[in-house]
Design brief:
The chain is an alpha+beta fold. It contains four helices and four strands; from the N terminus they run ββαβααβα. The strands form two sheets. Strands 1-2 form a two-stranded antiparallel ribbon.
Length: 98
Amino acid sequence: MELLMSDILVEQDGIYDELKSELLQKVLNLPLYKIVKADKPLDYIAKEELGKETYWWILAYYNNIINPLNLSHLDNINIPEKTELDSLMVEIKQGLSI
């Protein structure tokens, strides 16, 4: 099961509010693993660094990127620690199956 950002946002009256999501706060709290150049699209960097291109949204959120299609203003992308991210994704998936 692939996990999309919309799967973990909190819904209230049909509107998703990421500011109320504990899980997204945990994404922000992941330890920094390394910094890479922002010279490729986020999905490519996610695949290369985290093993899944579908984790592009994690990189966007982790780096406070509003428009993931425009990285021209960035020099670097912070990459979260992969084992910590994998543990968090297991936690999220378990929470979704309850």
